[in-house]
Write a structure and sequence with these properties.
The protein is mostly beta strands. The protein contains 1 helix and 7 strands; from the N terminus they run αβββββββ. It has one helix at about 5-10, and strands spanning about 15, 20-25, 30-45, 45-50, 60-65, 70-85, 85-95.
Length: about 120
């Protein structure tokens, strides 16, 4: 079966982890908001997090990593299920930032179990 699902289109590995994050932007009514949240899944190009604010696809946000105070501009690319934690919101960084989360991501083309160090 050919790979046609989202995992075949991923540019970097995903890590399921909770990282505190602050989100700033405008909600679907155009009002500015600032919200403290946490991630569900992260990768070098963005992540999935819970937000209480009602947003539209394509909305611009600024995420802040409270551990480093680094800011990253991103765009809402997915709106998922809602729960008491908020709505699952997928964001994509406007420019790749693999170090924003403070996590090292494996390259997708590295087969499992293969040494990442060159032979001497």
């Amino acid at each position: 079966m050919p790979e046609t699902d989202a995992s075949a289109q991923r540019r970097s590995s995903r890590v399921f982890t909770r990282i505190p994050v602050r989100a700033n932007g405008k909600n679907d009514q155009g009002r500015k908001f600032h919200e403290v949240s946490q991630t569900i899944v992260i990768n070098a190009h963005g992540g999935l997090l819970y937000l209480q604010e009602s947003l539209q696809l394509g909305a611009d946000l600024v995420l802040v990593n409270p551990a480093t105070e680094e800011e990253q501009e991103c765009r809402v690319v997915y709106l998922g299920d809602s729960s008491d934690k908020g709505t699952r919101v997928g964001v994509e960084f406007l420019s790749p930032s693999p170090h924003f989360w403070g996590v090292e991501f494996a390259q997708q083309d590295w087969p499992a179990g293969v040494s990442r160090t060159p032979a001497l």
